[in-house]
Structures are given as C-alpha cells and as structure tokens.
Amino acid sequence: MASHPVVRFAPSPTGLLHVGNVRTALFNWLYARRHGGTFILRLDDTDLQRSKPEYEAAIERDLGWLGLDWARKERQADRLQHYDVARDQLIAAGRLYPCYETPEEEELVHLSTRTIHALPYAAVRERLPVTFNEPLWLAVRGNLTTLADAQTWAEIVDGPLAPVLEDPSFLGEAASRLPPEPWVETTWKEWTAAVSAATQRKGRALFHPLRLALTARESGPEMAKLLPLIGRAKVAARLSGQQA
How do the domains of the chain map onto residue ranges? Predict the structure, then answer.
C-alpha cells in the first residue's frame, strides 16, 4: 500500500447527492485521513448538456455540511482535449466507429427491454420455443434483452450443455450433497447452505463454481429458479463434468 494514497470522489453534477455516493465519499475521505493521503473532488462533468453549475455548487455545499473537505478539485471536462486525442488514435487504428442510433432509437431499445421483463407468459407463448414453459419464462425474462435471447436459456435448461468446471473437487463435494427431488425454489438455498457448511466456502467461492458448472455462464437468472427446471439428473451430471 502506498504511504500517501491519493483517492477521489467523482460525482456527476447532473443531479444532487444521494446516500449511495455520499457513502463512497465518506469511505474515501476516511481512508485518506487514516493513511495521511490526499482526497480529491473530481467532477465527472463530461455530459455537457446535463451538467449544471447549480448541481456542482449543491454537491460542494452538501459535502461541506457533512464535514468532508478536499485537497483539490478537478473537472473531467478540463481533459476533453486529451480524450479527443485518444479517440482519434482509436479511430485511426480501426478500433472505434460511430454510433448511428439516435437518442430516441436508443431509448426505444431500453423501453423494449423493460417491456419484455414485464410481459406475462401468455403474451409471448406463441413466439417461444416449444419446450419453453411458464416457469422458465418467469425465471429468465428479467435477464433478456430481446425475445430471441430466450432460446439460449431454453438450451441451457434443456441441454445438452457442456459444463465449465472451475474446481472439480469442490463440485464433487457439492454433488454428494444434492437433496432428493422434488425440488422447489428453496432447494437452492438449502443445498448451498449444506455445501457451505461442509466446505466452509461462502460468497463467490461457493456460488461461482456452481453457476459455471450448471449454466456455463458467469451470470444469469436466479439459480433458485433455474435449479428445479434443470432437474437433479442433469445437475448431478454437469457437476461431474458430463455433458447433459
């Protein structure tokens, strides 16, 4: 650890402070004080349309009210010329290209995604794969960007799927503690609690290898909902490295 760390709080002056970013400011300020470091207020003001002087003033006023002072203040907007140089270098290297979507088109994409997340099964049933039932739809719809993405999760649940084995020894221990069926949404919590007690694993070390083995994905829908849909036979096979 550096003897004199430099930390920063980087709010965007497009609105007022809230508890989430005040928490970050407080932790960084305390860290700088504890280790004799420097606390910087760096305004993330690159959104030139929405950044307002009144929001900047309000941020400084609120930090002062909280008793959080800073050694110096910087603005991202002061570095725009450096970003322009980097942008031009990326364009010249063929690594950056224009986005031709209008703000309105981008908003439509977000609206479409939010619509999918709220759609009932009856509204999409005819457009889903034949094996795609209502429990699977309710489990995965919150993770879909487009309706076509549903096909991926149907394939993951139905198989065959080649599992990703991060820690075969641990997965073998987990497999030995699989409860009998029938399985419900609480099965995942009960099973992982038993595995945690046996292996002393928690958090990512516990859940990440299981998700990779069962879905071959780093992230996705709640495993509590997916586990009963995959079923015990396929779960056991995937934990042992078999394609199932």
Answer: 6-83, 103-146, 159-239
DSSP assignment string, 159-178? S------S-HHHHHHHHTTP
The answer to whether the bond into 160 is cis (omega within 30° of 0) is yes
Sheet containing 38-43: order of strands = 6-9, 38-43, 72-75
Residue type, 82: H
Burial label for 239, CB within 10 Å (0-12, 13-18, 19+), is: buried
Q: How far apart are CA 244 and CA 182, in angstroms?
A: 19
Residue found under tokens 């930090």: 63
Q: Residue 73 gets which letter from DSSP?
A: E
155-192 pLDDT, tens digit each: 999 999 999 999 999 999 999 999 999 999 999 999 99
Percent of the chain as helix, strand, coil, to the nearest 5: 60, 5, 35
CA atoms within 13 A on the CB side of 231: 8
Write the class of the CATH domain 159-239: mainly alpha
* CATH code for the structural domain at 6-83: 3.40.50.620
